[in-house]
Structures are given as structure tokens and as C-alpha cells.
Amino acid sequence: MSYNSEQINKHLENLQKHLADEYSHNPTLANAVKSFRKIDEVGHSMGLLEKDQSYATYVTWWPMIAVLGTFSAGKSTYINSYLNLPLQRTGNQAVDDKFTVICYSHHKEVKTLPGIALDADPRFPFFQISKSIDEISEAGQERIDAYLQLKTCSSENVRGKILIDSPGFDADNQRASTLRLTQHIINLSDLVLVFFDARHPEPKAMQDTLAYLVSASVNRADANKFLYILNQIDVTAKEDNPEEVVSAWQRSLAEVGLVAGRFYRIYNLDAAVPITNPGVKERFEKKRAEDMADINTRIQQIEVERSYRIVAKLEQTAKGIKNQIIPKLSDMLKKWKSKVILLDSITFGTLAILAIIGITINESWELIKVFCDKVIQGDSYALAITAILFTVIIVIHFSIRRFAANSMLKKLSLELGNDDEAYKQYVHAFNKSTAPYRLMFLRDPAGWNDATQNTINEVINEANDYIQILNDQFTNPSGHK
């Protein structure tokens, strides 16, 4: 599905109105939409964003919980228990090969909508995701329904939230697509529940999946949003060795980089194996109740965390443009100019030397003098030849400019690795800064001037103000009423 600037503007207006209506007592998020639109103006003027794009769509505006894990970890069973509805199919083998976005609806019956419903709505975390799917699937945007679906239900536990259930990694034939979408979800989520199957304490066959799920959380600034859940721990009741199972998992996770963090030990009471020893049963149920209470407390907190996350993303985007993108683009432009000057010097210097040698060998200096006299006199034939020569020189120069720009972008691709979004932004902005109509010796990137710099500084100040407003709602160091 394609969008134009008018459509994206309409989507943002609707989003702003919805947030203002829903949070009339707290206009912070509605105001944050305005601030995002200011950054969009900078992004559009610099070429960082296309006209149908907005930084506001890089963040989900509803509190979002991602449920990830291997196919046998009991994710769907946990979700059904949390919703008090049999929404998701369950089983020990992979039973669903799509990402399922779950949200609240006033309708009592459960409805399943196709992936296109998510692709077209900026309130959801997969807005315009078909563009990314187009890059990783031969079938392109037509395959969006093979990756995504939207389910609605009337469970009060999901009111005002978005819950995402991931497909089982190890049973997924579309692995590259799944991992890419998973990373997208992780970046946007307020809380990430990573489920592991307590029945498989030495998951050697799942090391690649573990490495991806766990490495995604290591060394992240928001690593505290990951909760590691050892599900179906009731299977250890017979041997009464949950600590040994936890230790086995901790060793497995340490092998892929996670050396800190807490495991939550839970199981589903309705699906649990019978625990005949009363003392063991009491101890297991007590531990389960404590960990479930902690998980539910974190879920209840995501409304607050969501507001801080959005404001942090606003500030991060503005500072990223000012402190990372602008210096990088400026450095690339400087190196590009040096390369163009060098190649121009080599090319035209070589051509000039060859011309001098040719004229000297043919003893044609007198003809050159006559030709110059005719140009001065306005001879049409001589002027036409001169125009052709200048055209050839200009074509060669701009070909060199393009060649130098492409070589810079090729090097940039190697530097950024798999960060496709960042690479796209740099490509668009750099191409705009090196366009043929733009003077080569301009120092700043295209679109970056005093006005856009002031806009970025203004948004950074607004983000700080939003943080203070949020703090005032939840803190009171002075103790005054």
C-alpha cells in the first residue's frame, strides 16, 4: 500500500485528536505528536524522510507487550490465561506461523483481521511494514497476510494495550522475515516477555534462537524491559529440582551473552501436572503466585513507561539528527568533495596533457590560435564546437560527482551493516546534498540551516519539558500537596 503526504498528515491529525480525547487530563502525548511533526519538517527538508513518512510512525503510541520465545514455551497458553479467553491456539508443536497483534474491542466475539489492517493504521506497530516485507520476500507486499494478523477481543486486561504473540521460531520457514519483524517489535515494545520451556533445560538445538532472543537484550539501554520467564516449571515438581533447572538455563543463556537477570518461574494451574506432595505443591504454588504478581505489576506499569518511552524516542530522534546524522553527513560531504576534486584533477589533467601532446606532435598551435580568434569574433561554428566541449566537460564532471557519491554510499553500507533504516535515511539525505543542482562547495548538508537547527533545539527543549510534566504526575520530592 502506498501513501502520500496528505494521507500521512491526516493520520497524524487523527492520532493527535485521539490522544487528546483519551488523555484529556494529560495532554503530554498529544503535544508530543506536534513535536514529532516539527522533526518531520526537518527530515523532509534534509531528505532524511520521504514525503509520505513520519518519525511518529517509528514508535507505537499504545502500551505494547511483546511475547517471544521458542515454539514449545507456552506463550499462547499464557496469553489465553491473561485474557481469560481461548484466543490463541495452543500445543507442544508450532500451531501458528504469524505474528498476532491482539487489542481490545467492544464486540464480544473474537475477530481475526488480515495483516493489511495493521499496515494501514499508524497507531499500530506495523504501520507500512509492507515496505520492509517487500525487501525480504520475493512475493513482496502481497505476502503481508502470511506474516501478520490482528485479533480483537473484549478482555478488559488488554484494554488500552497492544499484545503481540510471536510465532515459534524453530518451526518457522520464513526465518529471515521473522527475525526482522521480531527486532522491529523489540525496539517498539514497552515490555518484552521472553518465554523458555522448563521441560528442555539443555536446549542445544535452540541455540541460534536463544542467541537471537537474548543478544537482543544484552547491552541495551532499555534492557530492564526484558522479563525472562521459565514456563511450565511444574514439570520439575516430581524431582523437586527447580533450582537445578534454572541453573541449567542460566548456563545456556550465559553461553550467548546473558550473565545477569532474573528468571520468573511460572506454570498454568489448569494445565499443570499433578503435584502429589502437599509441601512441594504449596511451595511451587507460592513461588508461582509471587512471580505472576511481579509480572502483572510490570504489565500494569507500562502505561507510565509508555509515556516516557515516547518522549525518550522524541528526544533521541532530535538529538540523533543533531549529534549523529549531521556530523556524519558533513564528514561524508567533506570527503566526497575531496574525492571529486582529486578525480577531476586527474581526469582533466590527463586530458589536458594528452591534448597538448597531440597539438605539439601535429604542430597545430596556429590552428588553435585561429579557432580562439573565431570564438572571440562570434563565429557560429566555433561557438558550437566550444559549447560541445563545455558540455562534455560538464558531463564528465557530474559523472565523477556521481561516481564519488556512490563509492561513499557503498562504504557507508559496510559501516552500518544491517541497520537498514539508518542507511536509507543517510542515502536519501546524501543524494540530496550531492544532487547536480546543488553547489559542490556548500559546507552543510542540504536542508540544514539556522532555521532547522533551531527547530531541533526547540524539540529537545520540549522533550525535556514533557519529562518534567510526567515527573510531576508521579513524583513529589518536596512532599507538598
Short key terms for the protein model shown above:
481 residues; alpha/beta; 8-stranded mixed beta sheet; 14 helices; elongated
Structure at a glance:
The protein is of the alpha/beta class and 481 residues long. The protein is 56% helix and 9% strand. The chain has an eight-stranded mixed β-sheet, with helices on both faces.
Rg computed from alpha carbons, rounded to a whole number of angstroms: 30 Å
Give the assembly state of these chains: single chain
**What distance separates the N and C termini?**
52 Å
Fraction of residues in β-strands? 5-15%
Structural class, please? Answer: alpha/beta
Q: How many E-type strands? A: 8
- Helix-strand sequence: HHEHEEHHHEEHEHEHEHHHHH
Shape: elongated
Mean pLDDT: 81
Q: Given the structure, what is the number of helices?
A: 14
- Contiguous low-pLDDT stretches (5 residues minimum) are none
Question: What's the layout of helices and strands?
Answer:
Elements: H1 5-22, H2 28-46, E1 64-69, H3 75-83, E2 99-104, E3 111-114, H4 116-119, H5 130-136, H6 144-147, E4 148-153, E5 162-165, H7 175-188, E6 191-197, H8 207-215, E7 226-231, H9 242-255, E8 263-265, H10 278-361, H11 365-377, H12 380-416, H13 420-433, H14 450-474
Parallel strand pairs: 1-5, 1-6, 2-4, 6-7, 7-8
Antiparallel strand pairs: 2-5, 3-4
